[in-house]
Amino acid sequence: MSVKPASLSVRPVGRRRISDEIAGQLSEMIIGGQLKVGTKLPTEAEFVKKFDAGRSAVREAIAQLREAGLVESRHGVGAFVCSPVAAAGFKIDPQTLSSLEHLRQVLELRMEIEVGGASMAARRRTLDQLTSIKEALGAVKGALEGGDPAMKEQRAFHQHVATATNNPYFRDLMRFLYERIDAGIAEDLASSVLRGDGPQGIKNELHTIYEAIRIGDPDMARRAAWNHLLRTADRLGLRGLQGWEESRMTSLGEVKIPVCTAADLNPQAPRFTPPPGATDCHAHIFGPDAQYPYTPHRTYTPPEASEAQYLHMLSSLSLSRGVIVQPSVYGRDNSCTLDVVRRHPETLRAVVVVDEDISDKELEQMHADGARGVRLNLLFRSGVEVSDVRRIADKIAALGWHLQMLIDVSEFADIRDTLGPLPVETVFDHLGHMPTSAGTNHPGFQEMLSLVADGKSWVKLSGSYRITGQNETPYTDIAPFAREIIRANPERVLWATDWPHPYINVDMPNDGALLNMFDDWAPDAATRDRILAENPARLYGFDTPRS
User: Fold this and answer.
1) Is residue 9 part of a domain?
2) Phi, psi of 150 (to 5 degrees)
3) Shared domain check, 348 and 418
């Protein structure tokens, strides 16, 4: 008797290696339950047609699934779906959870994993994911207030948090744990929820987790998840989970935000003479602390880097102009950045951080103060979605501003489709922020180059120490990337120090050495002059430099 193969709806193959893309899509269908255990897969010829791929790619994809234990081949019959749980070789038998010892062990496992997940979600969640978490929280509160233990709603809340890590392995692992735990102790959990102040406690605990994820505080999210799981253990009568766990949760609040190394305040003169109007297109000013306090939700604490120190650096390198970029430690409070730029209207410009709710009047005032662009952090998505990018672009288009993107081009799919149609010019920070180990042929880097070649985007030759595999200047592994960017379209390239080089994990570079690296990348004087002076004048609205 023949077995009818599954009917599949597949996505077009993307930028990954074709076999990896096919295997990834099929793996998602198997783990997500779209392809049930025992289902016969389509034939090789059908896969070739569905994915518009070669037979070798299909065979390699099936081999990957077979090696992962998700598929088994039956001679003369075809390939069939196996159980993803069996393939993983890891099991939790719900029947054993009636034992307090086993239940405690599973909750300890969940504690160690889920605490980290809440922290990841605080850093990586998108606005859509945050909305889903908020809606799930509302469903939990509604069910509890109606006298229901809200087991299904609580599970959905935690699953939305797991999804917000944007790590599919974590998401699927948490789904597995929730299913096994629910199957083993659903009745005990339900009754524990409704005892005493259980409903109010759960509402408060989950609300705290949501708030930490909303404001993007990973340490607060970690502590909130830890507290919720400890209280869950309390409600189940497992007070043995307290002790070192309680003290560890307390110590998490004492973790210090790392303090950055200060910049080298003795910059060396470069070995060549920059042209009139030469511009440092990316730098930050920090402090004084008393006047410009940092956000408590920052990832680093910079030492003071003053206006006077920055102007000294520019003078030492024979640079005439600078662009002050709003750093993350100030959030959306652009006061420090704009106060400095306002004092130097002829020689400084600003790139600010705003949200989509900013008014036209506020933007116009920022323009008068010297702002010429908005910076968006898409490196970890940071709650910013593609739709937000478009809304902000629409708001700033009339001012002639640009969008400056902090983005790893190796991890952001569809760069051209996302940024190409925007009504404003876009600027890539730090050479695209892709590790040099990925190579210049990486599809993401090539997409960025295509936007530059077409005149739709700019790239800053800056922050090379953020992507190098080396510890000291000159970072020779950066040269092929910089030269490819310049070759793509030298009229769309900028150079910058990234002074005072906050939060780096290599030896502090001297700014003169960084400028000398640029001389290696662009030995032609006319090209150097265009990148250092003529291009910044066009983008930031400086007066055209005179030779």
Assistant:
1) no
2) 60, 40
3) yes
Tell me, yes or no, whether 353 lies in a domain.
yes
The structure tokens listed for 522 are 């662009």
Q: Measure Cα distances from 455 to 489, 527, 530 in Å.
A: 8, 17, 15
Q: Give the sign of the dihedral formed by CA 50, CA 52, CA 55, CA 59.
A: negative
Domain boundary among the residues 88, 107, 141 is at: 88
In the chain, what's the furthest Cα-to-Cα distance?
85
Residue with tokens 């016969």: 40
**Burial of 309: CB neighbours in 10 Å, binned 0-12, 13-18, 19+:** middle
Paired tokens of 455:
């005149």
Query: Are 450 and 444 spatial neighbours (Cβ–Cβ below 8 Å)?
Result: no
Are residues 83 and 38 both part of a single domain? yes
In a domain, 258, yes or no: no
Beta-strand pair 78-81/279-283: unpaired
Same domain for 321 and 368, yes or no, is yes
The reply to whether 293 and 405 lie within a common domain is: yes
Q: Angle 118-119-121 (CA atoms, 0-180°, nearest 5)?
A: 65
Are residues 341 and 324 in contact, defined by beta-carbon separation less than 8 angstroms? yes
Residue 203 belongs to what domain range? Answer: 94-236
Residues 58 and 102 in one domain: no
| DSSP H or E stretch at residue 26 | helix 18-31
The CATH number that applies at residue 142 is 1.20.120.530
Question: Catalytic residue numbers?
Answer: 498
- Taking only the tens of pLDDT, the chain with its 547 residues reads 455 566 666 666 554 578 888 888 888 888 777 888 888 999 888 888 888 888 888 888 888 888 777 888 887 788 888 866 554 555 555 555 555 566 667 777 777 888 899 988 987 888 888 999 999 999 999 999 998 888 889 889 999 999 999 888 888 888 877 776 665 566 666 677 667 777 898 999 999 999 999 887 888 898 899 888 888 777 776 655 544 445 445 444 445 688 999 999 999 999 999 999 999 999 999 999 999 999 887 888 999 999 999 999 999 999 999 999 999 999 999 999 999 999 999 999 999 999 888 999 999 999 999 999 999 877 644 445 556 788 899 999 999 999 999 888 887 767 888 888 899 999 999 999 998 988 999 988 999 999 999 999 999 999 999 999 899 999 999 999 999 999 999 999 999 999 999 999 899 999 999 999 999 999 999 999 999 999 999 999 998 877 6
Residues 73 and 109 in one domain: no
Pairing of strands 78-81, 348-352: unpaired
- Whether the CB-CB separation of 165 and 24 falls below 8 Å is answered with no
- 127 within some domain: yes
Give the chain's radius of gyration (CA, Å).
27
- How do beta strands 71-74 and 78-81 pair? antiparallel
C-alpha–C-alpha distance, residues 16 and 278, integer Å: 40
Give the CATH number for residue 52: 1.10.10.10
* Last residue within a domain, chosen from 183, 213, 236: 236
Listed residue (456, 442, 481, 512) closest to 16, CA to CA: 442
Kindly report the number of other CB atoms within 10 A of residue 187's CB atom.
Answer: 10
